[in-house]
Amino acid sequence: MDTASLQVATQVVTLRSALGDTLRAAILSGHFTPGQRLVERELCELTGASRASVRETLRQLEAEGLVVMRPHRGPSVTAISAEDARHLFGVRGVLQGYAARLCAELRPPAALEAISDATAELEAAAAAADTRRIVAAGDAFHHAIAEGSGNPVLQGMFVSVHNRLALLRNLSMARPARVRDGITAYQAIRDAIHDGDAPRAEALCIRHNDAGLTTALRILAESESKNIGEAKAG
Q1: Is 49 exposed, middle or buried (0-12, 13-18, 19+ CB in 10 A)?
Q2: What domains does the chain contain, in order, with CATH numbers?
Q3: pLDDT tens, 129-176?
Q4: pTM to 2 decimals?
Q5: What angle do CA 205, 209, 210 make, to 5 degrees?
Q6: CA 181 → CA 100, 151, 212, 216, distances in Å?
Q7: 80 CB-near residues (< 8 Å, 6+ apart)
């Protein structure tokens, strides 16, 4: 086989990777909302990328569960139903709990520092009532624990599930009561991991995840009720 045929166009790969990061971040931040159509022509205009690059990136985001392709409608941002939330939170709870257990057993210094920093940032963000910072701090907290687990397979699975719940996190973290409860939970999880108490760290993460599911289901129910009311009014 001619080895020249294995050469990769680095510039194209880098461009598509950057495009993927850009569109993924736009979805995770709520710039594109669940159910919103993603029109290729508009995305090309917004990003300056070619239609082929945009199309390939959308297929990648579909594989990640962030985009759904519907016949005769095209791509749109994935909307999460109550059933989806139960499934995703169920898996995330197992992953978070296991990651916390492993992290508490290993207690890698870098992870311990990152967990403490994320907790402090969450406290500061909550004091400033900055929802965007609150969400970012919460993400940093859980990613630090996942990395501290030392298990790359777990890390990859966690990121996939965690990303699909981005919108619900954005909405729940806009609620002061959820933020207050989150700070208390993060502080307890941080302390359990620092103390090397693996069973407690795991249990606390699962409890915090279950509370997140309760909030998410409440948000989805309120949204559905609002949509029904608007439809009747229309």
Answers
A1: buried
A2: 3-77 (1.10.10.10), 82-233 (1.20.120.530)
A3: 998 899 899 999 999 999 999 999 999 999 989 888 887 787 777 788
A4: 0.80
A5: 120
A6: 18, 28, 10, 14
A7: 34, 88, 164, 165, 167, 168, 220
